[in-house]
């Protein structure tokens, strides 16, 4: 690794842009190569938990974030059948006090724009659009970029090309679940949508997450169910009516107001949910994977972007300290495995049926909000290596 050469980053998503800023934070230059010619953010909303916002604060992005996000007062679980509240974890000022950092919800495009503005303003970061990285051999990188990098960072998402150039890496595997996404203007939203909360409506074999998008004056709605695989794409090619019929089928038996809401959803878009659960994250000290490229996970704990942000920040810390990539991967793998287990637990609990569902509701309703919040101390209170 030649420390005078820049780091090459493949991908200008949340992981890649945060990696560039984190490296610059430590005085290391990077060149980011993004496959698409125009950066447009797929998807709608994003929850940013305190472990992620702590890092964005260290990178100087909190003031921009505060302008474009809202801080929900609580994360609430509600029965999708009766609309009765099952449990609620306090957030808002409580999150700032307990985890020493805020919990925010916003449009993904707003986070991407804030990261992009910071990258563009930083002389140590250079962004090249319209260039894909598909070879990580030294001569391949030099041919594509004209650079002999000290390190290549694969931040190129779940279907990573960089990952495919390494040995012993995992594969992106369809999880059996799909997500439908759409937004709903405040004026059209039903009365049971609460703009002060993140609400997860739980039902049999599926759940629906709703939270406000302050700047767009709308609600972000994500419905997650089991489903068939439309292929390696974020943009479903299914005709809208077929998509809607599948969505309604998955939510039959839910509260009529929710069924009605889904019936009128404007062009719900299906996202197949892929996971990368195993395999190597690096080659020697030349190539490292971060974010979804390394460990794409299901959104049941709303932690994929947060893990991408943590990876990016901690990778920069390891690189600046001259530590081997093996140490970085060991360190991050245990953290990501614990988060993945939490997501698997949520998947089991959120989609539970029969007696398990009744037991879940009873146990959760007996717990005090502060006690529920304490379950998240290890996750939201995480202090990254600085
Ligand atoms: C329905 C849903 C809801 C979610 N909600 C949350 C949430 O609330 N909170 C949370 O923390 N996470 C959430 N996540 C997870 C989160 O969206 C992802 O984990 C995160 O966006 C991954 O970021 P990334 O930068 O690793 O990958 P990506 O966002 O996929 O970015 C990869 C970038 O690399 C580029 N690229 C691809 N190939 C190449 C190449 N060969 N060369 C150069 N560039 C390339 C792509 O164009 C893209 O710009 C959710 C996910 C889903 C599906």
Q: What distinguishing features does this structure have?
A:
386 residues; alpha/beta; FAD/NAD(P)-binding domain; 7-stranded mixed beta sheet; 6-stranded mixed beta sheet; 15 helices; 39% helix; binds flavin-adenine dinucleotide
Question: Could you provide a short overview of the structure?
Answer:
The protein has 386 residues and is an alpha/beta fold. It has helices spanning 14-25, 50-58, 62-68, 93-99, 108-121, 138-145, 161-164, 240-250, 256-263, 292-295, 304-320, 325-350, 354-366, 369-374, 377-380, and strands at 7-10, 30-34, 45-48, 74-79, 85-90, 104-107, 125-129, 151-154, 173-185, 197-202, 206-213, 218-226, 269-275, 282-283, 287-289.
CATH architecture assignment name of the domain at 7-69 and 106-171 and 276-346: 3-Layer(bba) Sandwich
Q: What is the C-alpha radius of gyration, as a whole number of Å?
A: 21 Å
Main beta-sheet annotation: 7 strands, mixed
CATH evolutionary superfamily of the domain at 7-69 and 106-171 and 276-346: FAD/NAD(P)-binding domain
Spell out the blueprint of helices and strands.
Elements: E1 7-10, H1 14-25, E2 30-34, E3 45-48, H2 50-58, H3 62-68, E4 74-79, E5 85-90, H4 93-99, E6 104-107, H5 108-121, E7 125-129, H6 138-145, E8 151-154, H7 161-164, E9 173-185, E10 197-202, E11 206-213, E12 218-226, H8 240-250, H9 256-263, E13 269-275, E14 282-283, E15 287-289, H10 292-295, H11 304-320, H12 325-350, H13 354-366, H14 369-374, H15 377-380
Parallel strand pairs: 1-2, 1-8, 2-7, 4-10, 8-15
Antiparallel strand pairs: 3-6, 4-5, 9-12, 9-13, 10-11, 11-12, 14-15
Helix pairs in contact: 1-5, 1-11, 2-11, 11-12
